[in-house]
Amino acid sequence: MTAETTETTEIIETAATKSEIDQRTERDLAARTAGWRLMVEAVRPQKWWIVVGVASGFIWTLARLAVPQLAARAVDDGIRGDDLHLVLLLTLAMLAVGVVQALTTGLRRYCAFRIALRTETDLRTRLFAHLQRLHFAFHDEAQTGQLMARANSDLQQINTVVILLPLTAASMLTMIGVLIIMMMKSVVLAVLALGLLPLLNRAATRFSSRITPANLALQEELSGLSGVVEESLSGIRILKGFGAERLQVKRLDDAADGVLKQALRAAKLRAGFMPLIDLLPTLSLVAIIWYGGHLVLDGQLEIGDILAYNLYVLMLIWPLRMVGMLVAQSSRASAAAGRIHEILSTDVAVDDPPHPIPLSDGPGNLLFEGVSFGYGHGRLVLDGLNLSIAGGEAVAIVGATGSGKTTVARLVPRFYDANSGRVLLDGVDVRDLRVSELRDAVGIVFEDTFLFSDSIRRNIAFSDPGASIETIERAARLSGIHTFIQSLPQGYETLIGEHGYSLSGGQRQRIAIARAVLHDPRVLILDDATSAVDPSKEHEIRAALAEVMEGRTTLIIAHRPATIALADRVILLDGGRCIASGTHEELLASNERYREILARSDSTESSSLEGSE
């Protein structure tokens, strides 16, 4: 390679790197701008508390500015004038002003914290509500730990800056008042005392430009750490089962080191900026004593004026610190708010139609008309599927892994929407129904049973907390779990541990079945509902399923022959299409592909059982 070629390559690479940096900077700026808009929007409902906070801050500022003036008069006119009565009056006035200052300090701080806490709560509620409405495709890709970080640490960053804003505004008023009073006494002395402020402004601007990317990187590292912690706790049984505790601790250490590295980088930047905030008042005092002393000796100023100047300069210490903290925190808060805005601006995708059609009573007929669907930009999982299920009919969907059988079940309650074609419930396209009404009509028992850390009663009545105990017991009887619950010391009020791990797999699954049939849905979906149950106990679940399926449209996603046999009809899927239909016995006798799939399932299950013995 020639030197000229090498130089050209380096120029191209440098240009590409610069372009990437520019694009990243533009994205960061856009995110921060969106973050500020979100914070302003979130704070707006607290406008009356903002007015009260601003008013109390204004009174607090006037009180603070009055104290040095009263002190100066007490020295010059009272003490030097040998007027004890005036000294007494001025000290009483200072005491009264101090009381006003104390009261307004409490009021303005209460307003600031109330506004911040209300804003944080409203944003958390809004974020959580939006996460609940977001489609499954979003949750398929999102990391739980990162979402938790947004709902906690990111909102805490916003809380802090919302507290600082009104407090810093009052401090800025103090700085302006101090500047005006100083100018009225001596322009030269004021310039000497405050002449370093432009330097502070320049330093703050430079600090902000450097701390922003550091804070963005820190927030990303914190999200990653939250993800590792969440996975470690949720998957503790897997970790212990594989003896992988040390590996996970190492992973956690690496994530924590990443947080530490970015936090130290941000701390180093702050450590370089804050000393300037501390140094400025000291330099101002030096200027006041040096030049102000000359003015006193020349008779142009009184000693009380020098005292007032010193007090005013001391007043600047905390406001300058507040400005420094606000500059640093604003960067973190805008980055955090930008991340929250990113979620809130995510399209719900699956939402109510503009003019929903009411779902009338019906037997639960299901119809798939030319349905095609693919996850993201991947291949089509369903390709022109046509399938009709009569009301009250139990249909099993069977196929190899990736054939689309679970996808069929997910399209009925609109966990996803078909790319093309239609899914109809009792003659109505499911996309024309209210989502809540559609899901009330569909009961689902998932393969991975999730129970909440609550009582059995509340778990069964999760979708209808106001359900009567009679309704709950009826659902439990249908699912075959009532007798077991009654045998417990606290019956339906028995508390179960996280995810219900204190119960057996069969018991958890039957509670899930009871939860699904509580509303007496017209369509019941069993998504591999027996796959996680010990085969020796499967007959208990099948008996419960047969009971709840009676006279109800049921879609069974299964691979175990005994569960498939519960269906009136079996649909064999391959390549996203229906390639065969019939009873379990008919397909077993006539379809080679069907026999292969069942044989493969039996082989996999047998291997799993042997490995567990």
From TrEMBL:
<feature type="transmembrane region" description="Helical">
    <location>
        <begin position="271"/>
        <end position="291"/>
    </location>
</feature>
<feature type="transmembrane region" description="Helical">
    <location>
        <begin position="87"/>
        <end position="107"/>
    </location>
</feature>
<keyword id="KW-0472">Membrane</keyword>
<keyword id="KW-0547">Nucleotide-binding</keyword>
<dbReference type="Pfam" id="PF00664">
    <property type="entry name" value="ABC_membrane"/>
</dbReference>
<dbReference type="GO" id="GO:0016887">
    <property type="term" value="F:ATP hydrolysis activity"/>
</dbReference>
<keyword id="KW-1003">Cell membrane</keyword>
<dbReference type="GO" id="GO:0005524">
    <property type="term" value="F:ATP binding"/>
</dbReference>
<dbReference type="GO" id="GO:0005886">
    <property type="term" value="C:plasma membrane"/>
</dbReference>
<dbReference type="InterPro" id="IPR003439">
    <property type="entry name" value="ABC_transporter-like_ATP-bd"/>
</dbReference>
<feature type="domain" description="ABC transmembrane type-1">
    <location>
        <begin position="51"/>
        <end position="332"/>
    </location>
</feature>
<dbReference type="InterPro" id="IPR027417">
    <property type="entry name" value="P-loop_NTPase"/>
</dbReference>
<protein>
    <submittedName>
        <fullName>Unannotated protein</fullName>
    </submittedName>
</protein>
<feature type="transmembrane region" description="Helical">
    <location>
        <begin position="187"/>
        <end position="204"/>
    </location>
</feature>
<dbReference type="InterPro" id="IPR039421">
    <property type="entry name" value="Type_1_exporter"/>
</dbReference>
<feature type="transmembrane region" description="Helical">
    <location>
        <begin position="158"/>
        <end position="181"/>
    </location>
</feature>
<dbReference type="InterPro" id="IPR017871">
    <property type="entry name" value="ABC_transporter-like_CS"/>
</dbReference>
<feature type="transmembrane region" description="Helical">
    <location>
        <begin position="311"/>
        <end position="328"/>
    </location>
</feature>
<dbReference type="InterPro" id="IPR003593">
    <property type="entry name" value="AAA+_ATPase"/>
</dbReference>
<dbReference type="GO" id="GO:0015421">
    <property type="term" value="F:ABC-type oligopeptide transporter activity"/>
</dbReference>
<feature type="transmembrane region" description="Helical">
    <location>
        <begin position="48"/>
        <end position="67"/>
    </location>
</feature>
<dbReference type="InterPro" id="IPR036640">
    <property type="entry name" value="ABC1_TM_sf"/>
</dbReference>
<keyword id="KW-0813">Transport</keyword>
<keyword id="KW-0067">ATP-binding</keyword>
<keyword id="KW-0812">Transmembrane</keyword>
<dbReference type="Pfam" id="PF00005">
    <property type="entry name" value="ABC_tran"/>
</dbReference>
<feature type="domain" description="ABC transporter">
    <location>
        <begin position="366"/>
        <end position="600"/>
    </location>
</feature>
<keyword id="KW-1133">Transmembrane helix</keyword>
<dbReference type="InterPro" id="IPR011527">
    <property type="entry name" value="ABC1_TM_dom"/>
</dbReference>
